[in-house]
Amino acid sequence: RHMSDAVLLVVMGVSGTGKSTLGAALSKALRLPFIDGDNLHPQSNVDKMSHGDPLTDADRQPWLATIRRTAVSSVLNQLGDNNGSHVEPDAMPETEKSPDGRSMLGRSGQPSPVRDEDQKPGIIIACSALKGSYRSVLRGETLSEAEGWKHSGKLPTWFVYMKGSRELLMDRMTKRQGHFMKAEMLDSQLKTLESPENEKGVVTVLIEWSTEDQVREVVRALE
Questions:
Q1: How far apart are CA 131 and CA 139, in angstroms?
Q2: Quick one: which of 6, 52, 172, 222 is 20 to 30 A from 106 by CA?
Q3: Angle at CA of residue 220, ends 37 and 114, nearest 5°
């Protein structure tokens, strides 16, 4: 298998859409590791958001690049790539480990025994990805992926756009606890949002759908 056989699935949308919930459900359905992109923010970004300050594009660039690199490294691990550019399981984010602490991708970069031969390699990452320019970074269009995996091709990227009304989103935001996103920032995010619906490799799901229906729609689109 090659990099071009794999998939990076980015679950996107404004805060309050349920990206983490859908990402975890897709991880189970597709048997792929899931990472919440919020966990890859540098501390400086987390500090800004916790004070209610919106991030600038300059703040986001290194974060988006880290998400793309993390995805490529994870897929290289699953492919058993030994060219030195993969990350060791112990260095992976907690969300890539199974509940007992073992890497879902296996030791030495080899796919773990639970993955069968026809299992499609890939990774699911939750990320707001509000602007077209952000999605370009996540697709790897602004980064060189040539070093180390020229033979493998590029990692194909799909976006799952979680779409919902301001009223429903605001209702969810005001009920959430322990999240560094402030409800007042929702309007700012909606203003920033550039719909991906006319872009290639995008599947749209509505936030009022059940998680099961959302998963069903994504799986159908990927087929």
A1: 13
A2: 222
A3: 65
Write down the pLDDT at residue 49: 85
- How confident is the model at residue 187, as a pLDDT? 85
Output the pLDDT for position 104.
36
Q: How far, in Å, are 57, 68, 106, 162 from residue 218 at the CA level?
A: 29, 21, 26, 11
Burial of 100 (0-12, 13-18, 19+ CB in 10 A): exposed
Give the pLDDT score at 128: 94
Give 180-187's long-range contacts (Cβ < 8 A, gap of 24+).
Answer: 180/46, 180/49, 180/50, 181/15, 181/16, 181/49, 182/49, 182/52, 184/52, 185/15, 185/49, 185/52, 185/54, 186/14, 186/15, 186/16
Q: What pLDDT sits at residue 1?
A: 75
Give the residue ranges of the chain where pLDDT is below 70: 81-117, 143-153, 177-183
Largest CA distance in the chain: 49
In angstroms, the first-to-last Cα distance of the chain is: 18
Encoding tokens for residue 136? 């370009």
Cβ pair 81, 109 in contact under 8 A: yes
3-state secondary structure of 118: coil
